[in-house]
Amino acid sequence: MHYRGFTFVEVVLTIALIGFILTPLLVVQNNVLRLVMKSSDRARRIFILKNAFSEAAINVDNEEDVTNRSFEKQYEVPHMSLKYTVMPIVKESSLKGFSEVYLLKAYGSWQRMYQEHSETMISFLFVPPNEKKESS
Prior knowledge:
This protein is α+β, with helices and mostly antiparallel strands. The chain is built from 2 helices and 4 strands, in the order αββββα. Strands 1-2-3-4 form a 4-stranded antiparallel β-sheet, with helices on one face. Strand 3 (about 100-110) and strand 4 form a beta hairpin. It is rod-shaped.
């Protein structure tokens, strides 16, 4: 007698084989998606820190004294706190001879998945001496 179709054992083995093949692929896909989201989140926050430097460069033209300045800002989307400081170069630095150069520091912190994350960016700012002060 000849039966048409698959036996129960053949169906169970096929499903098990497909499960063994797809499980690692789904795990890899989940890990890749998590890393992409984490990198995107970090890149967005780094962009915000970088914008703090751009705002400082614009404010140099509008203000008389930019030295020893600091401010803090809270962002809602994405949730992040930013601390920005302008300070003179420390005396131990190799840049100590340049009195017009200042250190810019932007520090951002946030929580993600109940863990504290932070990022720090530094840059330098050159403030040319004011020619009006020299002439008076």
